[in-house]
TrEMBL record:
Hydrolase found in the keyword field: yes
Keyword Ribosomal protein appears in the UniProt entry: no
InterPro entries hit by this protein: HepT-like, HepT_RNase_toxin
Species of the source: Methylocystis hirsuta
One Gene Ontology CC term in the entry: toxin-antitoxin complex
Record-given protein name: DUF86 domain-containing protein
UniProt keyword list: Hydrolase, Nuclease, Nucleotide-binding, Phosphoprotein, Toxin-antitoxin system
MF-aspect GO terms: hydrolase activity; nucleotide binding; RNA nuclease activity
Length: 119
C-alpha cells in the first residue's frame, strides 16, 4: 500500500540517488578548489564516489527519460563510472573537477525535470 502523503515514493530511486549525489558534490566542491583538492584525498574520494553513484544511477534511466533529456551525454556519464571503478589509477583530477563544477548544473536541471514529471 502506498503512502499518498509521501511524494518521494512516486519518484524512482535512481532519480533520488542522482539528486542526492548532486547535492553532496555541490557541498564538497563548494568547500574547496582544484589546487586544494589535489592534496586532499578525503574530499577527492568523496567526489569520486558521488560521481560513481551518478554514473550508476544514470544507467537505470529508461529510454523515455533519456529522450526527454537528450541534451545530457548519458553515455559519457555511464562511462566515467567505469573509469572510476576499473581504471582508478588514471583518474584525472582536472577532469573530475570539471565534471563537478561545469557539467553538474545541466545534469541537475535534467534530474529535476525528470523528478517533476514523476510527481
Amino acid at each position: 500500500m502506498r503512502d499518498s502523503g509521501s511524494k518521494s515514493r512516486d519518484i524512482p530511486l535512481h532519480l533520488i540517488g542522482m539528486a542526492t549525489a548532486i547535492e553532496r558534490i555541490r557541498e564538497v566542491a563548494g568547500e574547496t578548489n582544484l589546487a586544494a583538492l589535489r592534496d586532499d584525498w578525503r574530499r577527492l574520494a568523496i567526489l569520486e564516489r558521488q560521481v560513481e553513484i551518478l554514473s550508476e544511477a544514470s544507467r537505470r534511466l529508461n529510454d523515455d527519460e533519456k529522450q526527454l533529456t537528450f541534451e545530457i551525454p548519458w553515455r559519457e556519464i555511464a562511462a566515467i563510472g567505469n573509469i572510476l571503478r576499473h581504471e582508478y589509477k588514471r583518474v584525472d583530477v582536472v577532469i573530475l573537477w570539471d565534471v563537478c563544477t561545469v557539467h553538474l548544473e545541466p545534469l541537475s536541471v535534467a534530474v529535476e525535470k525528470l523528478m517533476r514529471m514523476q510527481r
